[in-house]
Amino acid sequence: MHKDMRMTKKITSAQVKLLEKLCNASAVTGDEGEVRRIVLDEVRGYFRSHKVNGEVTVDPLGNVLVTRPGIAAGKRLRVMIAAHMDEIGFMITNDDGKGFYRFENVGG
Questions:
Q1: Deepest in the core among 38, 58, 75, 93, taking most CB within 10 A?
Q2: CA-CA distance, 63 to 56, in Å (whole number)?
Q3: In this structure, are residues 20 and 36 in contact, taking their beta carbons and an 8 Å threshold?
Q4: Mapping DSSP to helix (H, G, I), strand (E, B) and coil, where does residue 34 land?
């Protein structure tokens, strides 16, 4: 592994708790509201605690859009970070009454 790709900081307990919260949240495709709320709370909290100006919006499809103006004069670097909020889920479509179930995936 290239030396620049190694982690230089240890993960904090707050980061572990956030990751745990995100992993435990229900977010089956089409029902990502719980993860969306966590993301919105975290971003807004970051802006408040760091006294950073920024805009947080949710579009009609439920995507979270965050913009933060640059502080440098002239040409500013533009960065986009994209991530999925959903996970593949399963829906039971048949119960044979003997302990066997048929299911279909939701999403993916």
A1: 38
A2: 11
A3: no
A4: helix
Are the CB atoms for 21 and 42 separated by under 8 Å? no
Report how far residue 21's alpha carbon sits from residue 41's, in angstroms, rounded to the nearest whole number.
12
List the beta bridge partners of residue 90.
105
Question: Over the chain (108 residues), what is each successive 10-residue block's mean pLDDT?
Answer: 66 94 92 95 94 91 90 78 88 94 88
Tell me how many domains the chain contains: 1
**Helix or strand run (H / E) with residue 21:** helix 13-24
Q: What are phi and psi of 29, to 5 degrees?
A: -45, 125
Sign of the dihedral defined by the CA atoms of residues 19, 20, 25, 28, in that order: positive
CB 90 within 8 Å of CB 105: yes
> Both tokens of residue 83?
């991530």
Q: What global pTM score does this model have?
A: 0.74
Q: Which has the closest alpha carbon to 54: 67, 63, 44, 45?
A: 67
